[in-house]
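Q: Hi! First time doing this. I have a protein sequence and I read that you can turn it into a structure. Is that right? Here it is:
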Amino acid sequence: MNIVRVIGFVLAFASPCSFAGLINVEMEGFKYWNDDYTELKKGGRLSLQVDTSGSDSDSNIEKGEYNGAILNASFFNSHSSKEYCLDFSQRNSVVVDLSSSFFTKLSLKGFFLDLDGRSTSFELFLEGTYKEDDRLDNVVEKVSLFSDATKLVMFGDGGFFDGDAPDIVKFSKAVPEPHAALLLLISAMGLGALRWKRIH
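A: Yes, that's right. Below is the predicted 3D structure, encoded as C-alpha coordinates:
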Protein backbone atom coordinates (compact mmCIF):
# COMPACT_ATOMS: atom_id res chain seq x y z
CA MET A 1 0.00 0.00 0.00
CA ASN A 2 2.89 2.38 0.73
CA ILE A 3 4.25 1.91 -2.81
CA VAL A 4 0.88 2.84 -4.29
CA ARG A 5 0.75 5.96 -2.12
CA VAL A 6 4.25 7.02 -3.18
CA ILE A 7 3.40 6.55 -6.86
CA GLY A 8 0.25 8.62 -6.37
CA PHE A 9 2.20 11.48 -4.84
CA VAL A 10 4.79 11.35 -7.65
CA LEU A 11 2.06 11.51 -10.30
CA ALA A 12 0.29 14.31 -8.46
CA PHE A 13 3.33 16.55 -8.30
CA ALA A 14 5.35 15.57 -11.39
CA SER A 15 2.87 17.02 -13.87
CA PRO A 16 2.77 20.66 -12.71
CA CYS A 17 6.42 20.66 -11.68
CA SER A 18 7.49 19.62 -15.17
CA PHE A 19 6.28 23.03 -16.40
CA ALA A 20 7.87 25.11 -13.63
CA GLY A 21 10.34 27.68 -14.92
CA LEU A 22 9.49 27.29 -18.61
CA ILE A 23 8.57 30.08 -21.02
CA ASN A 24 7.34 29.85 -24.58
CA VAL A 25 8.46 32.21 -27.35
CA GLU A 26 6.26 32.36 -30.45
CA MET A 27 6.83 34.62 -33.47
CA GLU A 28 5.30 34.88 -36.93
CA GLY A 29 5.47 37.15 -39.95
CA PHE A 30 9.07 38.39 -40.07
CA LYS A 31 9.90 41.01 -42.67
CA TYR A 32 12.75 40.04 -45.02
CA TRP A 33 14.12 40.90 -48.47
CA ASN A 34 13.99 38.62 -51.50
CA ASP A 35 17.19 37.32 -53.14
CA ASP A 36 17.92 40.43 -55.20
CA TYR A 37 16.78 42.87 -52.48
CA THR A 38 14.06 44.38 -54.67
CA GLU A 39 11.01 43.28 -52.67
CA LEU A 40 10.27 43.26 -48.96
CA LYS A 41 8.44 40.07 -48.04
CA LYS A 42 6.76 38.74 -44.92
CA GLY A 43 6.77 35.26 -43.40
CA GLY A 44 8.57 32.79 -41.20
CA ARG A 45 7.44 31.09 -38.01
CA LEU A 46 9.61 30.59 -34.90
CA SER A 47 8.83 28.66 -31.73
CA LEU A 48 11.16 28.18 -28.76
CA GLN A 49 10.89 26.85 -25.23
CA VAL A 50 13.27 28.28 -22.63
CA ASP A 51 14.14 26.95 -19.19
CA THR A 52 14.47 29.88 -16.78
CA SER A 53 15.64 27.84 -13.78
CA GLY A 54 19.34 27.72 -14.74
CA SER A 55 22.09 29.66 -13.03
CA ASP A 56 23.75 32.83 -14.31
CA SER A 57 27.32 32.16 -15.54
CA ASP A 58 28.19 35.86 -15.92
CA SER A 59 29.35 37.68 -12.78
CA ASN A 60 28.49 41.12 -14.23
CA ILE A 61 25.39 42.46 -12.44
CA GLU A 62 24.16 44.03 -15.68
CA LYS A 63 24.44 40.84 -17.74
CA GLY A 64 23.06 37.37 -17.18
CA GLU A 65 24.16 34.43 -19.34
CA TYR A 66 22.21 31.19 -19.12
CA ASN A 67 23.88 28.32 -20.95
CA GLY A 68 21.73 25.48 -22.27
CA ALA A 69 18.55 27.41 -21.50
CA ILE A 70 16.90 26.73 -24.89
CA LEU A 71 15.19 23.36 -24.49
CA ASN A 72 13.43 23.13 -27.82
CA ALA A 73 12.95 25.13 -31.01
CA SER A 74 11.43 24.93 -34.46
CA PHE A 75 11.57 27.34 -37.37
CA PHE A 76 9.91 27.57 -40.76
CA ASN A 77 12.11 29.56 -43.13
CA SER A 78 9.76 31.33 -45.54
CA HIS A 79 12.75 32.45 -47.61
CA SER A 80 13.59 28.86 -48.55
CA SER A 81 10.39 27.03 -47.45
CA LYS A 82 12.48 24.74 -45.23
CA GLU A 83 11.75 23.43 -41.73
CA TYR A 84 14.31 23.41 -38.93
CA CYS A 85 14.58 22.06 -35.40
CA LEU A 86 17.01 22.72 -32.55
CA ASP A 87 20.43 21.09 -32.87
CA PHE A 88 20.86 19.50 -29.44
CA SER A 89 24.50 18.59 -30.12
CA GLN A 90 25.51 22.26 -30.20
CA ARG A 91 25.78 24.83 -27.42
CA ASN A 92 22.99 27.36 -26.90
CA SER A 93 22.50 30.26 -24.51
CA VAL A 94 20.20 33.08 -23.47
CA VAL A 95 21.68 36.46 -22.47
CA VAL A 96 19.90 39.17 -20.48
CA ASP A 97 21.69 42.51 -20.95
CA LEU A 98 20.81 45.64 -18.94
CA SER A 99 23.83 47.74 -19.93
CA SER A 100 21.76 50.20 -21.96
CA SER A 101 19.87 51.37 -18.81
CA PHE A 102 16.93 52.35 -21.02
CA PHE A 103 15.68 48.91 -22.02
CA THR A 104 16.38 45.21 -21.55
CA LYS A 105 18.16 43.33 -24.34
CA LEU A 106 17.65 39.60 -24.79
CA SER A 107 19.79 37.45 -27.05
CA LEU A 108 19.09 33.78 -27.81
CA LYS A 109 21.86 31.91 -29.62
CA GLY A 110 22.00 28.34 -30.85
CA PHE A 111 21.94 26.08 -33.90
CA PHE A 112 19.20 24.71 -36.13
CA LEU A 113 19.21 21.42 -38.02
CA ASP A 114 17.50 21.10 -41.40
CA LEU A 115 15.90 17.86 -42.63
CA ASP A 116 19.19 16.85 -44.26
CA GLY A 117 21.02 17.09 -40.93
CA ARG A 118 22.98 20.26 -41.73
CA SER A 119 23.60 22.59 -38.81
CA THR A 120 23.11 26.36 -39.06
CA SER A 121 23.73 28.94 -36.36
CA PHE A 122 21.02 31.40 -35.38
CA GLU A 123 20.67 34.47 -33.18
CA LEU A 124 17.43 36.02 -32.02
CA PHE A 125 17.67 39.59 -30.72
CA LEU A 126 14.89 41.11 -28.62
CA GLU A 127 14.40 44.38 -26.77
CA GLY A 128 11.85 45.35 -24.17
CA THR A 129 11.08 47.60 -21.27
CA TYR A 130 13.78 48.04 -18.66
CA LYS A 131 13.99 45.81 -15.59
CA GLU A 132 16.38 46.16 -12.67
CA ASP A 133 18.02 42.74 -12.57
CA ASP A 134 19.67 40.28 -14.98
CA ARG A 135 17.52 37.32 -13.95
CA LEU A 136 15.88 35.16 -16.60
CA ASP A 137 13.13 33.71 -14.42
CA ASN A 138 11.16 36.98 -14.17
CA VAL A 139 11.43 38.14 -17.79
CA VAL A 140 7.77 37.48 -18.61
CA GLU A 141 6.52 39.47 -15.60
CA LYS A 142 9.01 42.35 -15.86
CA VAL A 143 9.55 42.94 -19.60
CA SER A 144 7.16 44.02 -22.35
CA LEU A 145 8.79 43.22 -25.69
CA PHE A 146 9.04 45.63 -28.62
CA SER A 147 8.10 43.72 -31.78
CA ASP A 148 9.73 46.30 -34.08
CA ALA A 149 13.09 45.72 -32.30
CA THR A 150 13.03 41.95 -32.85
CA LYS A 151 15.51 40.40 -35.29
CA LEU A 152 16.30 36.81 -36.31
CA VAL A 153 19.51 36.00 -38.17
CA MET A 154 20.36 32.50 -39.40
CA PHE A 155 23.48 31.84 -41.45
CA GLY A 156 25.36 28.70 -42.50
CA ASP A 157 25.48 25.76 -44.89
CA GLY A 158 21.98 24.70 -43.84
CA GLY A 159 20.32 27.93 -44.90
CA PHE A 160 20.00 31.69 -44.58
CA PHE A 161 17.42 34.03 -43.05
CA ASP A 162 17.57 37.67 -42.01
CA GLY A 163 14.22 38.91 -40.76
CA ASP A 164 12.92 41.43 -38.28
CA ALA A 165 9.82 43.14 -36.82
CA PRO A 166 7.48 40.09 -36.85
CA ASP A 167 3.72 40.68 -36.79
CA ILE A 168 3.28 38.35 -33.81
CA VAL A 169 5.55 38.20 -30.75
CA LYS A 170 4.35 36.12 -27.80
CA PHE A 171 6.40 35.61 -24.66
CA SER A 172 4.53 33.59 -22.04
CA LYS A 173 4.90 31.13 -19.19
CA ALA A 174 4.30 27.49 -20.12
CA VAL A 175 1.16 26.04 -18.57
CA PRO A 176 0.15 22.37 -18.18
CA GLU A 177 -1.54 20.88 -21.23
CA PRO A 178 -5.00 19.27 -20.82
CA HIS A 179 -3.57 15.72 -20.57
CA ALA A 180 -1.26 16.83 -17.76
CA ALA A 181 -4.18 18.36 -15.86
CA LEU A 182 -6.17 15.14 -16.37
CA LEU A 183 -3.25 13.12 -14.99
CA LEU A 184 -3.22 15.35 -11.92
CA LEU A 185 -6.98 14.89 -11.41
CA ILE A 186 -6.76 11.09 -11.71
CA SER A 187 -3.88 11.04 -9.24
CA ALA A 188 -5.84 13.12 -6.73
CA MET A 189 -8.86 10.83 -7.09
CA GLY A 190 -6.67 7.79 -6.51
CA LEU A 191 -5.19 9.29 -3.35
CA GLY A 192 -8.68 10.15 -2.14
CA ALA A 193 -9.89 6.58 -2.73
CA LEU A 194 -6.92 5.17 -0.81
CA ARG A 195 -7.63 7.50 2.10
CA TRP A 196 -11.35 6.58 2.13
CA LYS A 197 -10.54 2.86 2.08
CA ARG A 198 -8.09 3.28 4.97
CA ILE A 199 -10.69 5.10 7.13
CA HIS A 200 -13.44 2.59 6.41
